[in-house]
Protein 1
Amino acid sequence: MINKFVASAEAALADVPDGATVMLGGFGNAGMPVELIDALMAQGAKGLTIVNNNAGNADHGLAALIGAGRVKKIICSFPRQADSWHFDKAYRSGALELELVPQGTLAERIRAAGAGIGAFYTPTAFGTDLAKGKETRRIGERDYVLEYPIHADYALIKAERADRWGNLTYRKTARQFGPIMAAAAKCTVVQVRETVELGEIDPEVVVTPGIFVHRVVRIAPMRKVA
Amino acid sequence: MKKLDRKQLAARVARDIPEGAYINLGIGLPTLVADFLPKGREIILHSENGVLGFGPRPPKGEEDEDLIHAGKEPVTLLAGGSFFHHADSFAMVRGRHLDYCVLGAFQVSAQGDLANWHTGAADAIPAVGGAMDLAVGAKNVLVMMEHLTKDGKSKIVERCSYPLTGARCVTRIYTDLAVIDVKADGLHLVEILAGELTFDQLQRLNGVTLKYRAAA
């Protein structure tokens, strides 16, 4: 019997090694897998490469990981926020490497990894500093930049509902990077608000089919993030 | 000279967005445009974080942290709205499905180059978000900005001194002084917006020569 349910966030992340590449879902607080990130913090893995749209806010979640010196590199589109002080400090001190990627290119590089695409040409960033040193090509009337996929060892994402096969539905704009990160990682760990029996999710509305999911942890409805 | 204030400028941009348009409004000043879209037109707002057809901020106490726009402010969903993942969201952007995007800018060049993501200062932390995708993707890239810097220099320039967001991508510029189209042969004045400002005065303030033909 396939059963991807895991008893706790701690158990789901016990095998994350030092130096792993970890994708984190979430855009602002929406879709942020808060409890999984807390468990990664407690678990102790270091030298991590993190893939997220941002670089952490205030003192919790990804910001706490950075503050604790556990992240060696971050791949993101928008690190600078009013409350990104842990990132700012680590970046300025040279302790943290930043790979800045336009948001759509970030999404497509993640998608490409999950879809088995070796590389792709995108018009985004052509003629800008973010395309410096990259291969370019004129196709038809437009200029393109060659971009490579971003693979990960783990993806930590948040969904709304899961069954034991790992089929997922999401809630509103908490979906964002979840489905593409799920496909791009060797081990996808999902926190959900609700677990249901097989067949209870209408197959027509499954957003992420269970083939992309490895571990599911139910987290009781969220406490408010301060 | 009477410059437009932020709301007047937002209202001026909003007036040009037609019935049926799909549009993305950048973070900051462009977000204001949503408040002034003409009533009675169905205009569908897109946001990078995977939503089409979002509506105004909900009343206090009814915010949902799972329902935000790319500026991370709470929004509502209109009937007919939809959610999708980030790669689909940027397929809409890059794939030329959006009719318009409205972006802020540090500088726009005479060729329509856009600089809006980085000052290039050595100690500045770079952050790009979706700006480079929107700049190459939307069918019409509208820039909305103050015409002059705080020390009175034109933000419309021959060549951008700040790092580019996109090359030759801007189609129209709305400032607190004027509306200007970017065309293959240069910049064309569409309309003077500031009160008590003549074409000659605007030309002196602007960093680049403006072409002007009386409306046909």
Protein 2
Amino acid sequence: MISEVAQRRFREIVPPLLDDAYSLAKWLSQSPTDAEDIVQDAAMRALQALSTVSVDRPKPWFLAIVRNAAMTFMARERRKTMAYVGDMTDLDALDLRQGDDAPPNPEQALIAHEDGQRLRQAIAGLPSPLLETLVMRDINGLSYREIAEATVTPVGTVMSRLARARAMLGRTLRTEP
Amino acid sequence: MTDRDADQLLLRLHAALDGELDVMASLEFEREMHDDPGLAAEYRRLAALRDAVHRHAPREAASQALVDRIAALASSAPPAQTAAAPTATVVPFGRRAWLDRSALAMAASFAVLGLAVGAGLTSLRTPLPSSDVAQNLVSDLARAEIAGQPFDVASSDRHTVKPWLADRTTVSASIIDLAPEGFTLVGGRVAVIDRIPTPTLVYRHNEHLVALTELPLDAKGVRAAGGVETIDGYHVARWSDANLAYVAVSDMDEKTLGEFVEAFRRGGGPATEPRRP
């Protein structure tokens, strides 16, 4: 039985965050219907949790639950191999230098980015740890510390993942036709 | 430059882009960009990429069916609020990467944090009589100046300030580049007016600051005759356009504040941006 207090907290915290939750779930699952299932699952977990915890920062707290619900869902459905298994060292190692293939050219980049479909595909193609970091930052608007909290990751790792995600997007957009 | 230095510089570049640098680090970084055209070009390239992500991969709305299902989870007693109901009770201020800086910076930031939260709580508990809006904003600026921290996000890049404010307020801020007119954008912060978190832009002119708060037209006490009044030694100008009401508070002289208002109303250089979806 869920207490009245938990229900009240839930009504204050969760509804304003549903757009963020849905957007994160959709990017992680790559499916609108799966995203709805994930958000509903996350909301039920949140309601349970609110019986025992009080929440200082609702947004990273709820998005962490959404992220975990998405990981559970994806593992169960096996639709996409999540990159959380195995050694992440390589992925987190800083190798950000652009090399000689990236002369900064804002104009060219701007033109390329007008192709929204390509950009969305490039985002969807990011490895999961980079994808969730980029989505939480640029779509959900979380701060570095909030992302670190939501993903249980050191801030330094969040920063390098974000830089890597953007570098990969830039490379993909420059190289693919 | 070693690889490690290059990595650090790149991380700082992203942190600057995301509004995560504190004031002094921002200042230092802006100097570095000024001295290094390559760095500045890389910043512009990353900013263009980020803006493209905002444009082409916006936050999506949950369907009404999902919203209803979630509301039904906790709807035993009173009717559930709809997802669209604005809740001004949560004003996140936790976004600081600078608490581990010098003791002075820490003290200053705590002071601002306390003041900001305190101001927020005060206005949440007691709705302001309409005439107090300007007084409240004057006190805000005075306290912020004393604390040495007149903004919560330090950036002269309106593409950094805009999303920072958009994440924290329900008012879509007009951010106008007035640098050519001599008023440089230095940052932004959130003021809580009549229970509404509202965007406040901070511009600098010589050694003086002007804090411009943008409010919904239906907010209490925002409609007032034009012209400049003086409160506690600060000059206050109020005006409105079709979308928003504006209150500018400044320690600059009346004539200069008038020029600022004039420039802002004219729209400065580039036009305002549409609200990020």
Protein 3
Amino acid sequence: MLSLIVFLPLAAAAVLAAARRLPDAAARWSWVAVTVAEVVLVAVAVVRYDTPAGAGLAFEQQVPWIPSVRSSYHVGIDGLSLPLVALTAVVFCACAVHAVREERRPRAQAALFLFLQSVCLGVFAAQDLILFFVFFDLSIVGMYFAIAGWGHGNAARSAMKFFLYTFLGSLALLVGFIGLYLGAQPHTFDIPQLAAAAPLANSPVVGGLVLAAVLVGLAVKTPTVPFHTWLPPAHTDASAIGSAVLAGVLLKLGTYGFVRIAMPLLPDAWQAWSWVVLAVGIVSVLYGALVALAQTNVKRMIAYTSVNHMGYVVVGVGAAGIVGGGTQARELAVTGAVTQMVSHGLITAALFLLAGVLQDRASSYEMADYGGLAAPAPRFAGLFAVAAFASLGLPAFSGFIAEFQVFTGSIGVTWVAALALPGILITAALFLRAVQRLLTGPPGARSVGFADVRGREALAIGGLLVLALVVGIVPGPLLDLITPASHTVVDLVSR
Amino acid sequence: MNEDPLALLPEIAVLAGAVLSLLAGSFLPRRRQWVARLIAVAALLTAGIAAAVTMGGPPRTVFDAFAVDTATNTIRLVVVAATLLVIGLGVDELAGTPRESETYSLLLLSALGAVVMAGTTDLLVLLVSFLLGSIPLYGLIGMARSPGSAEAALKTYLLGALFGILLMLGVTVLYGVGGATSYGPLAVGLGDAPAAAVAVGVVGVLVGLMFKAGGVPGHFWVPDAAQASGTTAAAFLTTVPKIGALVAVYRLVLVLPGSVDWRLLVAVLAAVTMTLGNLAAFAQTDARRLLGWSTVSHVGYLLLPVAVAGRSTEALPSLLLYLGGYAVTNLTAFAVVAALPRRRSLAEYRGMAAARPCLAGALLLSLLSLVGTPPTAVFIGKLTVFTAAWDGGYAWLVVVAAANTVASLFYHLRWIAPVFRRGPAPAAGERRPFATTAAVLAGGCVLTLGLAAGPISSLLDGPLAG
């Protein structure tokens, strides 16, 4: 079941890549069909999912792969990965719908995005470090081509920067994984086994260095300050759906690594370094928000709010490692962090798709070029306003649920986490200002004749926002999924 | 007792193939030179089958000088497969040329040199295999008969002579202080020999072998020869000689006594080689020269398991796995180069993905593999090699190698980017069906080796003879 979910898009990508004579329309619609099938499959998986006992996994599957280094094809999902698997399916489906009128090499684009979908799902399903790394690295390769092939502006340069920077991160990750492998007795790359063994617990120096390597790798991907500089150019020059996937799904690969690998596998080192993680999180929140406030380019602004929003996740997981605090508060922080991943994925993907509408109609992201868009494009204005309010954490949207939990949990652990609170205020200010500049006031140079959001775009963006709203109003089912898993993570990291 | 010529059947087959294809070529008219090619291919196939049959047998030493064990058998298979691939990608270039049969003969002789070098456990045979592997190379490089190839051939020849002398000097010193040339007695003899003398001998032999491996300080000829010689020769010389040399180094260092810190020497050579190869590759604009420098950097990674020989159980299997993965990956890249003879500079690869999607796919696979992207062949090699090096206490070298891998991404991307960029493709040259087929086949192998690493690595896990 899980392997089907992971590899169905890859198989479809292979067919699309090979079928050179396929008409463009057929390629686009088969892409949509596959992503819809994925959403259905994931929905079935969610319905059939039954929280496994203890630290167990659902839909588990294990086949030996490289026995000489005890690496296997081991997949399985739990409460941490299932929400992200669902998020991946939803975001990619929205992208497929959004791109259904794509004119530039639609067949290749469909194949590439299906490939990306497969590897992203693979990362979330992987229960073996090497398997995790394989998918993690392939996601970088896929994204490179997505930026270089369908971007605009200085796409080649941005794509190169993205590839080099994140590849550096992934190599650091690989070094860390090798350290974990050698630290465990017997040597293994299997994540559940490593989590049970907690390697390097007795060697703080090596454990700290290995954690440092893993953290650098994940921090580049997340990205946190100071490793975030690849993000703004990559987003600015990527296509709308490229940005949506990058922000909506790929950034989660980094934060997911914190809860899946760094915390359970290196509990001692994580405890020792949790203050550093917390500090990095707070700085990311504040710095991301302040720099976003200074942007005049809509897409760069949204990119920096991603740094800010991912910062909340880092604050949550950092606080969870501070053993002095209450267990309940730490669990709440982890639950909030995972919820934030889902929430940010939905909302930011919608925001980037909206930014793509600006580029599509008027080839500019500069806020100064627009103004008064509410008159010519009421649907765009409505969707943008809703997305902006969702992103700044308005109650009734998923962002509120997530940030509320992160802050309640982390401040319950330590008051220091409260230093990140101004981030919410700044984000609110910058989104309100963006709404004001884009949608109200006198019409700008490029507002005249601005064509409103079309049916397929509205469907994709609206769908994401409706999901964010549903999570915000009825968070129960999602939290029921995540809470047992965050309980396990906090248990593991407290050893 | 151990004088069993049958154990050397693969080597004998290759030698016979070399002689017969040369003889056949001398008597055949030019349009029927393909007979010589058939002879060479048949000889290689015979050698491959003979090696595959002995694979998995108990390790033993024959003639007191040649180990028949997992390592030798693996190298036999890798060299045979690589040489077959080289001939396959070169057919379009060579068919009907005046020197066709001579090329096959030289390829086989040099391949034989590589296998003997990998298998030998005697310093004198090592010396002979050095010459047997090198002298045909000079001819192969010069065969293109262009000013560039003449320069490259002369450069290779002079360097080969110099490093050959260094090797000889090292062998002489080791023999002098150790009292034997065969590795078994030599290990005993070197145990209480003066450390300084042993160090001189070791440096001489290692540096001499670095010429064949294409590592610092014997790397100068590699980029020139890769750029200026014919594509067939370039593909061969960047792949096969180093296969033999690295296993020879591995066997030799196991003999050395603890009084000499050879591990550090190898580790430093590794770090310098990979760094220099990568830095030099940065500015290249010629595809083959870029591959030439990239091959230098890979020698650096390949020296990692040598530095921890005997300390990590993973060292030898990881070396063999990396060698096999690297050989097929590098040959894929050269097969693509051979299939597109008109495109020399990186910029000329613009628009290739649209014009030749299969070749572009093979090139992408091989370049990503050279970088070490999973799940390709070199990724598995790098993973196991890094693990072995860390396990053997060289974590700093792993960090250097990881940093170098990131650096290598940069220049490989400089090649990938134009391939997938839209643009006016240069006028299509003649079709080269053999090279194209070789590229696609080898590209498939790059992926298969990565995915099927499990069963393959279990085959490589055998003890050394002697």
Protein 4
Amino acid sequence: MTRLYRLLLRALPGSFRREYGAELCEILELNLAGKRGLAQVGVWLGALGDLARTAARLHADALRQDAAWTRRSLARSPGFTAAAVLVMGLGIGANAAVFSVADRALLRPLPFPEPDRLVRLWEKLPEYSDMEASPANYRDWEDAAQSFQSMAGFHFRPYNVSVSAGAEPRRLTGSAVTADFFATLGVAPHRGRTLGPGDDVPEGPAVAVLDYGLWQELFGGAPLSTISGLRLDGVPYEVVGVMPPDFHFPSRQARLWTPRRFVEEEFEDRDDNYVDVVARLAPGVSADEARAELDVLARRLEAAHPVSNADTGITMRALRDVTPTRSRQIVLALAGAALVVLLIACSNLASLQLARAVARRRELAVRAALGADRGRLLRQLLTEGVAIAALGGALGAVVAALSAPVLDRLVPRTLPVPDAALVDPRVLGFTAAVTLLTGLAFSLAPALRSARADAAALQEGSRSGLGARGERFRGGLVSAQVAASVVLLVVAGLLIRALWKVQAVDPGFDTANVVAVQTPLAIDEWSETSRRAELYERILSRVRGLPGVEGAAYASYLPLDFGGGVLPVSVPGSDLPEDRELRASLRYVTPGYFDAMGIPLLLGRDVSGADTMETPLVAVVSESFAERYWPGQNPLGRPFDFAFDGRIVAGVVADVRVRGLERSSEPQVYLPYRQARDGWLNFYYPKELVVRTAGERAPLLSAVREIVRENAPGVPVAAARSLAEVVSEDTEPRRLQLRVLAAFAGLALVLAGLGLHGLLAFSVASRRSEIGLRMALGARGGEVLRLVVGRAARLTAVGASIGLLASWGAARAIEALLAGVPPADPASFAAALAVAAVTALSGSLLPSLEAVRVDPTEAIRGE
Amino acid sequence: MTNESREEIESLLPLPPATFHILMTLAAGDRHGYAILQDVAARTGGRMKLGAGTLYRSIQRMRDQGLIEESRRRPARDQDDERRRYYRLTRFGAAVARAESQRLGELVELARERGFAPGTA
């Protein structure tokens, strides 16, 4: 029985156990002697309670002592403490900040019940794996598929939102959703109710569910029963519910939800794809089973609709996995870089601690001689390490909180996760764990070495250095830091090259002196084409008369700003197969658009106000469109089918980058603004007013606002953007990612330089007498210099070689981010080497001078 | 008694009850741990029951503070157990015990003046 007790005694601190363990056992034996049954149990219970209390108190005593010792020891060397805390703070802060991004972009379970069962579905076409579904296909999926508990369709639906008639509305992004939308996601409303089957009926009530933030903004969080006056596109809506603050679906941009009711005509065309689909797997059904069923279903639909559904499959992906690959890679690359910075910070501190250990050798040896055992000393040194890390962790938490809003832009807006919070328990937890681990990591090796210090150190009485092994260890740490910095430098260099390359891409239009103002028209109110056309003409004629304006036009969307809007094309008599999957992007434009945008007209003519539904339907197409269907021939006058009508090519313009500077775009088709059937393709009503002007932006915006208010009261005017800004937004994630990585690389480099400096300074200081002796024996300054710089060069060379090899691996891992810059880009590697060499040189500068300035007589006398 | 050691004594007061009782026990002669426990329990009529862990934590601290030390004298073979260690009061420990007793006495005196002490109220 007492064997068990002896085992439990292990909970006590070692020194105490060794001192009193045997006596504690004896007392338990004496207490048990002569007792039976319940009385024995009582003794045991008492002993165990006593043991637990004592262990807790003893450990608390030790912690108090160690804390007091740490406080004194850190206060004695404020310079070291400040540097160490700063280094740890930056290292931990970088990791906490990147974790907060990675957590939200990749890790955190989505805020829905049983999120693993939620999936997104798309039509899978030969050229697009993720195409929205047509209403008819969506309806057939929902009716036939057995693998899902429920399925819902939704689509992006912008609204002009106002709270009372007459006020200028705001343009907000909403989502039109089918009956099962909220039931599929499984989220209960914060107030009121969600939308359900009762709302999904023809001519159903005009009801809306608001995002929590919008409810606060518009109504100050007032009770639903007192709310009235909400107008969406000018139509009164009743607010029936408010979603909880962390509900964001389909994306963080969605601010309100309205019922989507399909009308019979919408089911006629299976090539009109605009329905996003979310579904919840039925209990017990695996993703693979659901996919197998969808494959069968897709083949059945293909057989039933051989033209429209030719080669049409169904893509299913877990909701969590919709993060784009590039975002994923960016986040992973940053996580890797942050980790490298932390490792450098740790090894730097380990090196500093090692140097301090030498200075404290006597103190520790005295303590050991006075009876403190090795475990106790180790514990004390680790406490100091964790304390430094804890201070650094606190600083790191601040760094992370400050950088979170900036880094948040790396989390795709399309993810249904909440915005970054200033204080995030998950991030704090991560920070605490990293803090503890790093505290132990950087102090363990030095502590083990120091605790080994024995009485010999006392007798020695010398202030000699670390000894050969310690010096080598520190040298190794410096080399490792150089290697890690080189990796970060190479990666940063490659990303700079990639950014340059992307920025050098010609978007296909002029970015200088062109400003775009958004004036979105409410879909139902402006469904009549002629009325819309007259509004455009009135606005444009007034805008063209403004001072400084050289041209103005309307278009559906700006390139780069919106990449979608692609429709199938077919060309009678074309050699290409029945090409329903060959698509082109559709934009309605007014005359003068190409002029205003600086898109060269290559052949034929611009669209014209005289192109109406009464005249032949025409189109201006891009060069690549003409090249695809009529290579080497004159495309003018050629017929093709597009956007539900046959059209004739009237002109050819140069291509523009619609989807982005780094992506290939579909060819473009521009249709005259008057050749639209009433109410059709309402998604494409021109709303971007493009103005070429030499003047200032602010007066232009207020003039446009005035003009719009006079001609179309109730139409919102959104802030003006220059096309240069539109282009720059396209490269924003890239520049942000580069800035973060460059900051990490710079930090790593400074730390490595400091590490080298610290090592050399220490070794010069501890070898003063040797250097003095050499000089006394006739060594010249140059030789002493070679001694120090040579060492720095060797350590740097070793580190840089390892770093270059590792860089090559890192570069290949992020190849997808490099926009075609080869991973082994010599310029980036050379630049990284040069920067590392300069840093190493500056790190060795002061110690070298110190060494040369050693006065031989003084140095030798000092011994 | 020098000023320095008086200050040292004062810094330890008031004593935790367990410490005081251990001092009182050892004042009567050297004891090993188990004997201290029994002695304290007997003297307080079982009201003060020290756990073994609490006892040795106190002993460790009292040794660090110089109140007690390990005794080299051991009892006759037949009564001894080699695992046992015997503790005795140091001179400093005795001084501290005296100072604490005086402090407690003054408190009792105060209580008596105000009519709280036993026998007066």
